[in-house]
Amino acid sequence: MNRLVELLTRLMEASADLPDPEVEPEVVLAAAEHMMEMRRQAFDELKLTLESGAAVDADVRKAASQLQGVDSAWAARMQAAMNTLATRMVGARRLKASLYAQRQGKHAAIQV
Q1: Are 28 and 19 in contact (CB under 8 A)?
Q2: Which residues contact 110 (CB under 8 A, 6 or more apart)?
Q3: Cα–Cα distance between 23 and 93 in angstroms, integer?
Q4: What does pLDDT average to over the chain?
Q5: Is the whole model's pTM more than 0.85, yes or no?
Q6: Is the dihedral of CA 17, 23, 27, 32 positive or negative?
Q7: Which of 22, 69, 95, 98 is 20 to 30 A removed from 8 (C-alpha atoms)?
Q8: Is the pLDDT of residue 79 over 70?
Q9: How far separated are the first and last CA of the chain, in Å rounded?
Q10: Distance from C-alpha of 56 to C-alpha of 104, rounded to nearest angstrom
Q11: Region of residue 30 (left: phi > 0; alpha: psi -120 to 50; beta: else)
Q12: How far is CA 6 from each of CA 38, 43, 105, rounded to the nearest angstrom?
């Protein structure tokens, strides 16, 4: 059970330490795999604890309820990071199309 509290605590701390997803979306998305693995381990440990019939103490209940808030915050950060990267990709495509048009001597509006 101590392992469960430790996993949940590490997961919450790691979520709080992530950078702004609009500034460093690549870092946030790169952390996603590690965060999902930690989350899976925490839920596996919680399942084993419950299946064993062991009493669940207040620390575990508190950590498990806080995990719901972490999930919500994490989902919002992931969405913001993906939106930022998508915006950058569209901007890069428009820039590339504009530069291509300029090289071709065209000044027409570029639609992407």
Answers
A1: yes
A2: 94, 97, 98, 101
A3: 20
A4: 77
A5: no
A6: positive
A7: 22
A8: yes
A9: 54
A10: 70
A11: alpha
A12: 11, 12, 62
Place of tokens 């693995």: 37
Is 108's pLDDT higher than 60?
no
Tell me the one-letter amino acid at 44. Answer: D
pLDDT one-digit tens code per residue, 18-68 = 777 787 888 878 877 778 788 888 878 878 877 887 777 777 777 777 777
Burial class (CB in 10 A: 0-12, 13-18, 19+), 24: middle
Residues 30 and 44: their CA atoms lie apart, in Å, by 23
Token couple for 81: 């990071």
- pLDDT category at 111 given cuts 50, 70, 90 is low
